[in-house]
Specification:
Nucleotidyltransferase, domain 5, 2 domains, globular, cytoplasm, transferase, EC 2.7.2.1, metal-binding
Length: 397
């Protein structure tokens, strides 16, 4: 079966067409600036030249039609007709407490997703727009929703509750939800295979480190703790997000700087993190370049980020009681040997030792710890699209 994976943003649409017979990517692409001047579709089919299509796209329905036309194009397409698409898997950011696993999209599911909009006002609306457009264009094709939050719904109450009046959890659903769940689940399954064990036999710490970053404690294949919270703002310091801070800072800054709710929210989400700390960039590569030149703020920024990661790994070791493996994934986790080495330096007392040559490698699934390291350390490139496709296949079959 060939499965189309869709990930809709407010003005973007990412997609992959995957042949589930061998899990090969037949085509992939990105539509940008939907509803904005300068709309563009970048499409690439296996073993063919990349195609750039620049045409106005007033909404996601128009964008999706262009994607489907690109997929069946005789010159640069990947399939002969749309009838080859057996199912569509949609990435949905927030499923609230209603969805602990992926599910087939039916009317009652759509309604439940609409009810979750207030929990993810920036993400769920475009996800729903993409679902609506797909259902209209491909009405006979089964569709599945895969939720970023679902994997973390196995957290116990003591892990997801906040120290505020319990009534606010009951009334508004204020609790830790966690995100990047599809990625954490994928790499934990891959790690188990790499270790030659079943997921239910292992306690793992998965580190999704990119512009958005989170860590999860995975016990027996299930998430029992994670660093992101009610929103993706919580936890680690990220590209532009502040991560965990003293909540009293918010009203303090609002008073001192005369900030509105919208302004302080923007400050924490868009102006903070390593961008705000370094004053250089939200891209770790730029900060590392400046740090190498002797920029003290850049150096401190990197050390602050690495410390937060070490602190979280240490805390999750206490949660799990036993750690059978640590996994690095996502942009920074997969590609930065320096950051991996600096983070693991703090765990020499645990008997963790990195293989310097292995750690220099990038872009492939591998152990980067030595054979005698007390805890294996791995790099596993994440593949959320493949995880979505696997869930979709399992459900539609």
């Amino acid at each position: 079966m060939k499965i189309l994976v869709i990930n809709c943003g407010s003005s973007s649409l990412k997609y992959q067409l995957i042949d589930m017979e061998n899990e090969h990517v037949l085509a992939k692409g990105l539509v940008e600036r939907i509803g904005i001047e300068g709309s563009i579709l970048k499409h690439e089919s296996a073993n063919k030249e990349k195609e750039i299509i620049k045409v106005p796209m007033e909404d996601h329905k128009v964008a999706l039609k262009l994607v489907l036309e690109a997929l069946v194009n005789e010159e640069y397409g990947a399939i002969a007709s749309m009838e080859e698409i057996g199912a569509v898997g949609h990435r949905v950011v927030h499923g609230g407490e209603k969805f602990a696993e992926s599910c087939v999209l039916m009317e009652e599911v759509i309604k439940a997703l609409e009810d979750c909009i207030e929990l993810a006002p920036l993400h769920n609306p475009p996800n729903l727009i993409g679902i609506s457009a797909c259902r209209e264009i491909l009405p006979e094709v089964p569709m599945v929703a895969v939720f970023d939050t679902a994997f973390h719904q196995t957290m116990p109450k003591e892990a997801f509750l906040y120290g505020i009046p319990y009534e606010y959890y009951e009334k508004y659903g204020i609790r830790k939800y966690g995100f990047h769940g599809t990625s954490h689940r994928f790499v934990s399954i891959q790690a188990a295979a790499l270790l030659g064990k079943k997921p239910e036999e292992l306690n793992l710490i998965t580190c999704h480190l990119g512009n958005g970053a989170s860590i999860a404690a995975v016990k027996g294949g299930k998430s029992v703790e994670t660093s992101m919270g009610f929103t993706p703002l919580a936890g680690l310091i990220m590209g532009t997000r502040c991560g965990d801070i003293d909540p009293a800072i918010v009203p303090f800054l609002m008073q001192k700087e005369n900030l509105s709710i919208e302004e302080v929210n923007n400050l924490m989400n868009k102006q903070s993190g390593v961008l705000g700390l370094s004053g250089v960039s939200s891209d770790f590569r730029d900060i590392e370049e400046e740090a190498a030149k002797g920029n003290e703020r850049a150096q401190v920024t990197l050390e602050t980020f690495r410390l937060r990661v070490r602190e979280t790994i240490g805390a999750y070791a206490a949660v799990l009681g036993r750690v059978d493996g640590i996994i690095f994934t996502a942009g920074l986790g997969e590609n930065s040997a320096k950051d991996r080495a600096a983070i693991c330096e703090g765990f020499k007392a645990w008997g963790i030792a990195l293989d310097e040559e292995a750690n220099k490698q990038r872009g492939k699934e591998m152990f980067i710890s030595t054979k005698d390291s007390k805890i294996p350390v791995m790099v596993i490139p994440t593949n959320e699209e493949l995880m979505i496709a696997r869930d979709t296949l399992a459900l539609v079959k």
